[in-house]
Specification:
Elements: H1 3-9, E1 35-38, H2 50-60, E2 64-67, H3 80-89, E3 93-99, H4 129-143, E4 147-150, H5 158-178, E5 181-185, H6 199-206, E6 210-214, H7 215-220, H8 225-231, E7 238-241, E8 243-244, E9 251-252, H9 261-265, H10 268-271, E10 275-278, H11 286-300
Parallel strand pairs: 1-2, 1-10, 2-3, 3-4, 4-5, 5-6, 6-7, 7-10
Antiparallel strand pairs: 8-9
Helix pairs in contact: 3-4, 4-5, 5-6
């Protein structure tokens, strides 16, 4: 079950120039950024052995971590400072954390998402910005992360979107007071018209926060990341990096699909990109996937 579907179930420019054949090319992008990982990639297995899983991730070469939802609750069963200390002991740093924008709500008639074996996923109680904003901000600050990121908002109606923007702007203000940066993470649904409006455009124009651009979901939503950088320079300090096949339906390890990452990474400065995180939404073999992505980024694209 892919992350987009998981989030959707919680209730919430031409494309051709972005696609390339699956040829490996010698990248020339200067090395400026540590390669990061979004831990949602390991959602189905990390809580079985948090320390062991993190050590394997560090052994691959990843240096920066963005955390997400844990079946253990909290920060993989730990307090913020404990989690930060564990990562530091492995030579990694905790840069960002994902939270929900609104309460978890399973749509009428929808079924719980399933794991790689087809078993329904147990959804733990999850705090959200609408109900628990200040404590989530305080915990992120206590853990020393640089960024707090809203993973999603409801996008069913314009009223839902505008109400969510109010929550996001209040969170942005609270984050600034706490000394951290707040950002919003997209899926492709934010690029689908709702009552004549594009939700992502509303977020950009009425929201005060920064943006974490999921490159693949933007492309699936018929948006060109490079053009987005030109229109909103410096607004995208965080990226999610995943690949898609030619149908734009199936997630693949970075470099194994059709997205022209060289073209996008060349515009990192215009985007204002500070950190990027590899993500593969609940793959059957997450360790194999992140190794392929790391090798492509480090040895081919040379980021």
């Amino acid at each position: 079950m892919r992350r987009r579907t998981f989030i959707k179930n919680s209730g919430y420019a031409t494309l051709g120039s972005l696609l390339i054949s699956n040829k490996m090319f010698a990248g020339s992008y200067p090395s400026q950024h540590a390669i990061g990982l979004q831990l949602f990639t390991f959602f189905n297995i990390i809580d079985e052995d948090v320390q062991g899983t993190l050590q394997k991730i560090a052994d691959v070469g990843y240096k920066e971590i963005e955390s997400a939802f844990s079946k253990k609750g909290g920060y993989y069963g730990m307090k913020p400072k404990e989690f930060a200390a564990m990562l530091s002991g492995m030579g990694m740093s905790w840069k960002s954390h994902h939270v929900l924008g609104a309460p978890f709500k399973l749509p009428k008639g929808a079924k719980l998402p399933t794991d790689a074996n087809g078993k329904p996923i147990t959804i733990p109680p999850m705090r959200n910005l609408k109900e628990n904003m200040q404590e989530l901000v305080d915990e992120a600050a206590d853990g020393g992360v640089e960024y707090l990121v809203c993973a999603n908002i409801p996008t069913g109606t314009l009223d839902e979107i505008k109400s969510s923007v109010e929550v996001l702007n209040k969170t942005d203000e609270a984050c600034k007071k706490a000394g951290i940066t707040f950002a919003y993470h997209n899926h492709d649904m934010e690029f689908h018209e709702v009552e004549g409006k594009i939700p992502y455009d509303i977020l950009l124009t009425e929201g005060t926060m920064q943006m974490e651009l999921d490159l693949a979901w933007a492309i699936k939503g018929k948006r060109d990341p490079v053009e987005m950088f030109k229109k909103n320079p410096g607004r995208f300090p965080l990226w999610h990096v995943k690949d898609l096949d030619a149908s734009l339906e199936n997630i693949m390890p970075v470099g194994m699909g059709t997205i022209d990452f060289k073209r996008i990474f060349e515009k990192a400065s215009a985007a204002g990109m500070k950190h990027f995180f590899v993500e593969h939404d609940m793959p059957k073999d997450p360790m194999s996937s992140i190794k392929e992505s790391y090798n492509y980024l480090a040895n081919v694209l040379k980021v």
